[in-house]
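Predict the 3D structure for this chain.
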Amino acid sequence: MSSFNIYCDESCHLENDGIKVMGLGAVWFPKHKKDEIFTRIREIKVKHGLPSYFEIKWHKVSPAQEEFYLDLIDYFFDDDDLHFRCLMVSDKDALDHKAYNQTHDDFYYKMYFDLIKIILTPECSHHIYLDIKDTKSQDKIVKLQEYLRKTHYDFEKKIIRKVQHIRSHEAQALQLVDLLLGAITYFHRGLQTSESKLKIIKKIKHRSGYSLIQSTLPKENKLNLFIWKGGGGY
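Done. Predicted structure below.
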């Protein structure tokens, strides 16, 4: 049975943070490619004069490290084993949780399911890793794991082997999610505060061939984007 690692992160996911959009992102690749991918990302850091333990973060993007981040984007698109999916909720203000008898946390789990569902393959096993956020993180892990297994009829726990939290400095792939998700969230927020960040977004558009405004086809396998605009019982 083939096995995949999936690394997930979120942006602007809180209900009352004053930000209109909410983003979820996931990078995935064959499990046996992990060491090769992590090593390559560390090599790119060293190539640009950074320590191998330097943590890639969207909020760290600056003119001084612009070429480093652009190089990372090229690496993502050049490596056929790397894939990214982003789910972008276009307007949190329009959500009516009461109408659907749900809390914002319920909605959060449903969106995570929508993020991951097209990544999962019934004949493969998957190891899912999420960036640890707060003291409630473990409860979220348990609920998300239960929700995913239930919705995929994975009663024997073969499709979803585990869902666990890790810290972003421990996983190069999780840092890559932060960068890609941060760029697409920044774009959908309409921000233009950093020329370096705008150059990264331009590079993503160029390499992907997508405007990042609309959803891609569900089977897009490199940079898959789903713009969620409501409806469908959510």
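DSSP finds six helices and six strands in the chain.
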